[in-house]
Known about the structure:
Blueprint: H1 2-22, H2 32-51, E1 54-60, E2 72-82, E3 88-97, E4 100-113, E5 116-126, E6 130-139, E7 142-149, E8 152-162
Antiparallel strand pairs: 1-2, 1-8, 2-3, 3-4, 4-5, 5-6, 6-7, 7-8
Amino acid sequence: MIRSSIILAALCVSLTSTIARSEDPAPSGESKQDAAVVDRDALFKQFGELLSGAKLVGRFTILGKDDGPLPKEEYAISSVSKLPEGDYWLFKARIKYGQNDVTVPLPLEVKWAGDTPIITLTDFTIPGMGTFSARVAIYDKKYAGTWAHGKVGGHLFGVIEKAAPEEPNEPAP
């Protein structure tokens, strides 16, 4: 009985100190809302810097095709910047897909799960390439997610590296 009372008391003290810490005011007289805005701004800056001038290098699966090695993939992103409206970001990306090799601006929605950005596309049409859907989480210089192109889809994953400057993919005038 005494032992369970001691355990209960320790739990109450622990819970009380946890609640007290969560109710502490933000430093420097800032409100919690101001601190959240600063954190969000810092997350946005960090996200843009991580993906600007980066390559996503990894592999992907195709559901229903479980044999053989996983195909490689690579996406080169020249820049990523927050658009003024909503959760949209402008990705300037080089896409190599089949016979296509183009650099295109893509306004993509990015949702946040705490400090983790998730790039979302739902029935997003890229002219000349088709319609795509995806959910890709970015964390600790790695990416992972799901993709679909029409009735074909699967998983994708890899690492984020800083890219070497690329040669232009369009002929000079």
